[in-house]
Amino acid sequence: DAKTTQPNSMESNEEEPVHLPCNHSTISGTDYIHWYRQLPSQGPEYVIHGLTSNVNNRMASLAIAEDRKSSTLILHRATLRDAAVYYCILRDVIDAGNMLTFGGGTRLMVKP
Amino acid sequence: GAVVSQHPSRVICKSGTSVKIECRSLDFQATTMFWYRQFPKKSLMLMATSNEGSKATYEQGVEKDKFLINHASLTLSTLTVTSAHPEDSSFYICSALWGPGNTIYFGEGSWLTVV
What we know:
The complex is a heterodimer of chains A (112) and B (115).
Chain A: E1 9-13, E2 18-23, E3 31-38, E4 45-50, E5 55-56, E6 61-64, E7 70-75, E8 84-92, E9 106-111
Parallel strand pairs in A: 1-9
Antiparallel strand pairs in A: 2-7, 3-4, 3-8, 5-6, 6-7, 8-9
Chain B: E1 4-7, E2 10-13, E3 19-25, E4 32-38, E5 45-51, E6 57-58, E7 67-73, E8 76-81, E9 90-98, E10 103-106, E11 110-114
Parallel strand pairs in B: 2-11
Antiparallel strand pairs in B: 1-3, 3-8, 4-5, 4-9, 5-6, 7-8, 9-10, 9-11
């Protein structure tokens, strides 16, 4: 599986935007970029995913570099409830695309 | 709302006993479910792939006789930890595919404490 690299932790102030980076330099053409987050003592929650184009949904935006070797999850206005571990995961939907391999993720801390 | 549900959310069992954790897909059929284990402050580790009507596929290093997986129906997979030991204490999480995009959704997780 192609691997991802994320910072171990990040801090943000409440109601400010947060940009969570992810590097995936060995991404293949059939890898989708998925983001999940895990709140304390809960299962991971789907946030967003994309292939080449930037994506927006009610939770976040995903900005994908033109060469697809990196991406950024954008939370437009962080709230205290956004404090979680954010995982950037590549999912090859052609080969073994139904399982997810989790890396270390980024622990986001939100300060009031 | 939740599309995958686990039960129980927390369970305490005595060392040497067995405990069963259920994973249900709500209002949809899941031919494949996945079981993960997560130790405190660590990331999720895939344990096995649960296939409806057939044997589960276990990841390397996971004892299939200790972690019994049964996927007897299209909406239910169970994980039974047999002869539990304190080192089996962990957060167990299941997942399933749902929706037109085959997004993977996770259950709420089940905390197992073996005393």
